[in-house]
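Students often ask why we bother encoding 3D structure as a string. The short answer is that it lets us treat folding as translation between two languages. Here is a chain of 295 residues written in the first language.
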Amino acid sequence: SGLPSRGVTPDAMTPDGAPSPTRTGTAARPDDEGQTELSANWSGYQSDGSTYTGASMDWTVPPADPTVSNGAVSIWPGVGTGNDTSDELVQAGTQIASDGAMTAWTEVFPKEAEQPISGFPVSGGDQMSVHVSWDPATQTAAFLVIDYTTGNASMSSEQVNGSSGGTAEWIAERPGYCDPICVYQPLMKFPTESISNGSADVTSGGVTQNYYIGSLSYYPYQMVDCHDLEAGTVNPPLLADPSANTDGLGDFTDVWKGSGPSGDSDDPNECSWAISPGNAPRSEERRVGKECRSR
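And here it is in the second language, the structure alphabet:
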């Protein structure tokens, strides 16, 4: 959860160390629409340029894999840019760690960290379905999380400060933590992840319609190591790679390729990003890329 880190350079940084975003979530389509983007923490799809009021997708919770120590992966749909507190990213999903810890969660970013759903256990192999939405009239975010395997369902809502509804996302993410410097965790090894029914709600003139990813203007994210991204390495090794959306619907697969180096907040050579305040506790789990957006 949080923003994608894409090619951060020193001259793109604001005074507090946070890269200045240039993708604003307005209705205009970006110049790079349809082209593959490289990210240090996102793999999947994003769509820009409509008035999105919701996003949905189905997936299977991957099993915990201890191959990569301290690894984790978070899978979620979301709506909104998350650029700042006036344009928040509403999202919900599951996070799996290599030590076997698994949670279902909701989040309004950057307002808060992931909020675990109480009394909602998940396990590897569970079939999940999530729909997140926000109501611009009431500034309310709503979350529907369903585990078809266990039969559990959770519905919740909370107030948001604001959202442009300018983006929708369907993402497998490399998480991170802050202590207080924020670093990336290794990406947990996962079997090929099948995402299905990825879609977004578009509201216009008071009417809401649902569209599959293939019916929208979208572009894929390939996940690469943060060092390669910052160095501008040509054809860097991939950490995760989404398949093409060939059926024109909302289905694609995401393939694990590598874990990336282990994050170490004491290693000045490790890719990191700044948060404010700088003494935010590790337990706050400010998510990867949250203030690392380079566009």
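Translate back mentally: The CA atoms of residues 104 and 258 lie 24 Å apart. Keep this in mind for the problem set.
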